[in-house]
Each structure stands twice: as C-alpha cells, then as structure tokens.
Amino acid sequence: MNENIVNTIGAYSKFIYNTPHIIFMSEPAVLDWDRIVHKNVRSSDGQDAGNVDAINGDSIVIITEGARKEYKISKSDVQAYNGAEVFLKLTIEELEKYRV
C-alpha cells in the first residue's frame, strides 16, 4: 500500500476516534407518520407509554391500554421510529404534562 495512503488513513482514524461524536439528523424521526398508528410508544426513560391512536396535523395522540389515559404531543417530541416502536424525547413523567 502506498505510504501516503497509509498516513492519510492513520490520520483520519485518529481524527474519528479523538473527535466527539455529533450526529446531525438530516431526516425527520418518522418519514411516513401514518405508519406509526397503532404502534407501541416508549418514553426516553424506557417506559411503555401506550400506543399511537391517531395523527392530527402536527400532533400525535397516544392512548394507554384500556384507553385510561390519553396524551396529545407534538411530532417534534418523537425521537425515532424503528418500524416496530416509536421512541419519544420525553420521559414518562414529562409525558404526563400532555395528558388530555
């Protein structure tokens, strides 16, 4: 292997390992909001928060089992969606502020 390439790769790997990991989200947390309806929801502290019941404009309606609690949160409060579960930026305690 060319010595210049080896030096460049070595410098690059030092840069990667010595640089704080910053992730820039270029895409929204959910590409198709209708796909998350009826999916399980987890709070940022790992608690089961219920299921997505509906999408209303810029809001998401979450209900708990037996529809005992209902929450209405902003789409911006969604951290990620892995195809099976929706993950929130909110803890279960913070979610209580959005109870309807």
Architecture overview:
The chain has helices at 3-18, 92-95; strands at 40-42, 48-56, 59-63, 70-74, 78-81, 85-88. The chain is built from two helices and six strands. 20% of the residues lie in helices and 30% in strands. The protein has a domain at 30-98: SH3 type barrels. Mean pLDDT is 83; it is low at 15-24. With 100 residues, the protein is of the alpha+beta class. A six-stranded mixed beta sheet has the order 4-3-2-1-6-5, with no helix packed on it. A hairpin with a 3-residue loop joins β5 and β6 (85-88). The relative contact order is 0.17.
Number of helices: 2
Biggest sheet, strands in spatial order? 4-3-2-1-6-5
User: Hey, roughly how much beta strand do the residues contain?
Assistant: 25-35%
CATH superfamily of the domain at 30-98: PRC-barrel domain
Form type: globular
* Average predicted local confidence, pLDDT: 83
Give the CATH topology of the domain at 30-98.
SH3 type barrels
Q: Low-confidence stretches at least 5 residues in length (pLDDT < 50)?
A: 15-24
Second-tier CATH architecture of the domain at 30-98: Roll
